[in-house]
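Archive entry. Fields below.
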Amino acid sequence: MVINMVSSLDGKVTTNSGKAGSIGSPVDRLIMRSLRSRVDAVMIGASTLRAEKLNLSVPEDLSRTRVSQGREPQPLAVLVSASGDLPLKENLLGPSPKDRLVFTVPGIPGECLATLSQLALVETLPVEGDSIDLRIALHVLKARHGVTVLLVEGGPSLNYSLVRGGLVDEIFLTLAPKLTGGQGPSSPGILHGPALPPGTDFSADLLSIHAAHGELFLRYHLKNLKTDPNS
Ligand SMILES: NC(=O)c1ccc[n+]([C@@H]2O[C@H](COP(=O)([O-])OP(=O)(O)OC[C@H]3O[C@@H](n4cnc5c(N)ncnc54)[C@H](OP(=O)(O)O)[C@@H]3O)[C@@H](O)[C@H]2O)c1
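PREDICTED_STRUCTURE:
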């Protein structure tokens, strides 16, 4: 699994509007779409969809390349939400309902489930505390949906849980030459959550670095990936 994020020079992933769309350049968006073209599914957390309109699909030329490489025309769009508060109709542009999958929790209100089910395939998964067990989510993606390569595009809360769980292979990070300022929970970095536990190696190896138009495109491999013998 890989995470792809864009951050300002001061380490923030949202602007003061609470959106991320304006941080990266057109080159960053090109790379984002190129990454999407190479994966089976793109996952985001519910707050990322609530923040702004998103299109998780790839354009026609990349869709054709996917098909020529034996992939589905579009990556599966995977949305994670415990509340079921997902503005699929308003904010998710692009994939048709058959290319959308919502992971949610048992006990979601029936009305909400019915609404979501009209717009996406919905699966309820076991919870760990009051959140979906993301390791199980990855098993389900592989076993039921043939997802072997997953791209996660945030947000910081979802990233945090995945990194903390040792589920992330690589992080692609674009460092954009902008300063945003801001503080507190509304101005997160690429991970949002409590301090990572001591005693685990959360360092990363730099795999590549490219510069274009003032942006740095960084690719890191995380050391604490916990491979699962059953996966
Ligand atoms: N710069 C970038 O590259 C970038 C990329 C993505 C997002 N962003 C920005 O990041 C902000 C959103 O980030 P965020 O950290 O607030 O939120 P987030 O990670 O996008 O979403 C968090 C929400 O996802 C759901 N969720 C996550 N893990 C879950 C689990 N294990 N089980 C069940 N539900 C789970 C929950 O939804 P419910 O609340 O519905 O239960 C949770 O509140 C936005 O401002 C967005 O623009 C920036």
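CURATOR_NOTE: The chain has one domain: 2-222.
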